[in-house]
Structure formats: structure tokens, C-alpha cells
Amino acid sequence: MNQLVRMFVIVFVASFGLLYLTSYLNSSAGYSGNNTLTIYNWGDYIDPDLLSRFEKETGIKVIYQTFDSNEAMMTKIAQGGTTFDVSIPSEYAISKMKEENLLLELDHSKLPNLKYIDPRFMNLSFDQDNAYSIPYFWGTVGIVFNPELVGDLTFTSWDDLWDESLRNQILLVDGAREVIGMGLNSLHYSLNDTNEAHLQEAKAKLQLLTPNVKAIVGDEIKLLLANEEAAVGLVWSGDASEIMDQNDKLDYIVPEEGSNLWFDNMVIPKTARNIEGAHQFINFMLDPEVAAQNAEYVGYSTPNKAALELLPEDISTDERFYPDEELTSKLEVYNNLGKKMLAHYNELFLEFKMHKK
Ligand code: SPD
Q: Do 287 and 331 share a domain, yes or no?
């Protein structure tokens, strides 16, 4: 009996010691066992120094993963089995994720820096009261081009992309809404059009563009265009700004038939394990100095009014990337077209990609 008690005491003391040692090792690395934050963001969409700064300031270890489309991100979160604490979807995706109950309601009392966001970017239709999402970056979709390689083309019209002189000279961003939307806009249709005849017309017109399309690519589009591997690209405005930073011969324009105005906002998915840390991270990214550093690093347009004032004037006054309300009011925001129609847009885009091959 005595021996049994001794054994029990030895096992108890050993387990306690092991537990103490593990927690000591974790805390000496600066993090307690479950004090991590998993962030799921677009590729190339944050200054990595800010992640280190957040870790240092809070003692929270960041685990960082990326996606390259709203569709891929939504599928992964909806499937479950992930522990993302913060993600950064675009407006139509936020609306769909709300509908599918994939987002947590935010606690604004934990986001005092929200006061720095320009009211123009708050309470938008996809998330009234910003109950589920907080502005991160915004922008347009347009054409970046190398004036030395495109002759007289000015790209004031989407139709310029179909010009025969651009054979094998165009790179397209790998986005279903962007490419199908461009086809629709070029026909003067809405980029939220759900009329099947219009969609088929856009598909047929896009098929005629394939001889001019060199490739459909992800984030590498920036390097390829900056290195003059192609003359023209269909891009998000922030990518254009980064490309032009690397090669100042290039220019960016939003064609007159219209285009997309988009908003990427920070959300806390239902999969979150560290809800407190997620609020801390969102509030950190809203700090004017942090937001300005991030905007300068990634090249995208900040919705943070106080951060905008901290940016160099050549950035904050560049109307190509900070278009005024008059221009933005002519642009269209993607609607959540519903599960079936969004799947249809994806199918049309896949068919276009197959046709291109
Ligand atoms: N490399 C960062 C890409 C971020 C793009 N977000 C734009 C989404 C528009 N729907």
C-alpha cells in the first residue's frame, strides 16, 4: 500500500514538473501556450514588420496564412477544421459570409481606433453599422499599361484591350469577378448582371480577347509588368501603384464605361479561438501610424483618415489611387449575387481559362 502511495506521489510530482517546465519554456519564448493569433489574409497584403511589432507589443504569436481569392478563402472557412482568428474578405464575400453565419459580431468597445476611419467607408450596404467588418484597404479595378509599348492606345475604353496590336501582351488578374466584370463593363452592362443572355455575350466577347492574353496570374502580375514582360495588365489599383513604384514608365487608368470599386475589411470568422487577440489586432491595424506604414508598404489605398494625413503628399494626392467621390460614385461595388450566381460566374471564368489554354 505504502509503495502504491509512493508511486502515486512520484507520478504526480513528475507530471507537475513536466507541466511547469513546458509552461516555463513557452513563456520564456515570449508566448503562453495558447496565446496565438491565426491571420488569414490575401498574399502580399501586409507589411511583415507590423506583424513582428504586434507580437512584440502584445506577446501574442502570429500564425499567418494567405489566400488568393475570396472564393478560396470562403470555401476554406466554410469547410471548417481551421482556426482563423482574423480574415480580410471583400465586400460581396462579407455579405455572403454573414448570410452563411460564418462571422462573429464585433465588440466596438474594444476598437477605440475605429474613430480614425473616414466615415465615407463606414456603414456601407454590405455591413450596416460595421457590425461584422472593419475597413482595411479599398480601391478600383483598372488597366496598368506601358505607354512605350502600346502605340496610340489610351485605354479610356475597355475595348482598347481587344486591339490587334496587343497580341500576347495582356496579363489578367486571376479573379472571376474582375474578368467577367470587365467583359460585362465593356458591353456597358453592370458588373452585377445576372441576365443569362448578357453573361453569354460577355463570355463570347472575352473569348475573342484570348489571342491578346499572355497569362492569367496571381501576385506575380506585379513583377511581370514591372519587368516589362507584358505591356498591359488588368489589375487592382493597389497592385498598379506598387508596379508603378518599381517602374515609373507605367500608368494606371480606369476606363470610362465603368469599373469596380471594392472594399476589403477585417473580420473575425466563426472559427476564431482568440477573440480578444483578434480585436487587439484589428485595433492595432487601425492605429494611424501603423495604417500609414502598411499603406506605404503594400501600395493600397487606406480608408484611415488620420493615416492618410501621415502619408507623403505624392501618395495621398494621387487621384489614380485616391479618386474623389465624383469618380467613385460612378463605379460599381460587387453585390453578393447569391450562391448559385456566384458559382455561375466562377464557371464562366473557368471556361474562359480553359479556352485560353
Ligand atoms: N495582393 C493583395 C490583393 C488584395 C486584393 N483585394 C482586392 C479585392 C477586390 N475584390
A: no
CATH (domain of 158): 3.40.190.10
Shortest-distance Cα residue to atom 8 of ligand 1: 90
Q: Are residues 62 and 113 in the same domain?
A: yes
Compute the half-sphere exposure of residue 37: CA atoms within 13 Å on the CB side of its CA.
22
Residue 230 pLDDT exceeds 90: yes
CB-based contacts of 315-319 (< 8 A; 24+ apart in sequence) = 318/241
Q: Are residues 254 and 166 in the same domain?
A: yes
Give the confidence band of 17 by pLDDT, cuts at 50, 70, 90: very low
Structural domain harbouring 206: 139-261+320-356
From CA 198, how far away is CA 187, in angstroms rounded? 9
> Do 96 and 239 have their domain in common?
no
Do 343 and 224 share a structural domain? yes
| Residue 355 alpha carbon to ligand 1 centre in Å | 25
337 and 217 in one domain?
yes
Query: pTM, whole model, 2 decimals?
Result: 0.90
Count helices and strands in the chain by DSSP H and E runs: 14, 9
Q: Which atom of ligand 1 is nearest to the CA of 219?
A: 1
Count of domains observed in the chain: 3
Question: Where are the alpha helices (H) located in 210-287, listed in sequence order?
Answer: 221-226, 237-246, 275-286
Ligand 1 centroid to Cα of residue 115, in Å, is 24
The 10s digit of each residue's pLDDT in 249-290 is 999 999 999 999 999 999 999 999 999 999 999 999 999 999
Mean pLDDT of all residues belonging to the chain: 92
Q: How many CB atoms lie within 10 A of CB 278?
A: 27
Q: Is 255 helix (H, G, I), strand (E, B) or coil?
A: coil
Q: Which one is predicted more confidently, 246 or 325?
A: 246
Query: What does the block give as the cell for 354?
Result: 480553359
Q: Which three cell numbers stand for residue 262?
A: 471594392
